[in-house]
Amino acid sequence: MAHGLEINKDGTARMAFADREVPWHKLGVRMSGLQTAPEMLRAAQADFDVVTTRVSVCDDNGEPIRNPDGKVVLVEDSRATVRVNPDGTFDGLSTVGTRYVVQQNIECLERALAVVGASKGEALIDTCGVLDGGREFFSSIDLGQLIIDPTGINDKIERYLLVRNGHNGRTPITFANTSVRAVCKNTVMAGIKSANRVFTARHTRNADIAIEEAQKVLEFSTEWAKSFRETAEKLLSIPVSPYSQNFTKVLNGVFPAPVGETDRQKKNRENTLSLVKGIYGNDKNGGGFGYNGWTTYNAIVEYLDHYRDAQPNERAIASMDNNSWVTLKKIKTQEIVLSLA
Q1: What's the whole-model pTM score?
Q2: Do 87 and 116 form a contact (C-beta atoms < 8 A)?
Q3: Would you state the pLDDT for residue 154?
């Protein structure tokens, strides 16, 4: 399988990746964890600038052909994209139309980060690389570190936002929410093909990408993310010991005893409370991140989404329905925990 990565004269590849998983081709610079956009671009040697120039006519020896008046013959309806290298040399990439506007790799990547609501300088870049001799650029943004949600249905968020940019006049600026980690030409194409939501923009003067439009197409609600992040920070600041009255208050508030509770109902409720307490102590919640309002909330959400007595498809539908009793229980949990502050 051809990787399509640009290979330097010394045999190294213009590619970098976070070290949690080595790409199949075993090429590129291995980085310690996720990186910021400038760091990953620099490591992958993808931080070059591209400019457009006029296109002149040359003979077989590369000498410009001139008219009798000495002026170089130009192709009026074409431009060339040229890579500017750090050593002062240039690489011709492709011919493009006169309406083509360059979008630098860093600009494209920074806009993608803005689409998912990332803070400036946040380390979220998992992979980054150059394809086809500099004519294409790709990157994978790790969404697992962000709090994002597509209009309230977070089960549809995939792991990565794949970013693709071209300097060849054919490849549009592309953002795709996908489960595929981009490490080569084939995985870039596979990621875009398998993505449910893809945003594209042509390289024209209108391609100064409207972030709001991309968020709408990709169904990323960063306003939801912002408010959720603020709430999460408040929940995190509230101590909730698993043996405290506060913890009991939350459980009894979310799973109250019904009026005239029967023995069977009481037993079922006690089993529920016991199960939630066990979830609260596991490594994904209080046992790993401390006993506080945030982990209390997550323990109850985990129970509602994955452990309550119901068919898997019924649990999934209820979790994605903004008006279901499960969603109302989650809201109730949040309200009760916040009241403890």
Answers
A1: 0.68
A2: no
A3: 46
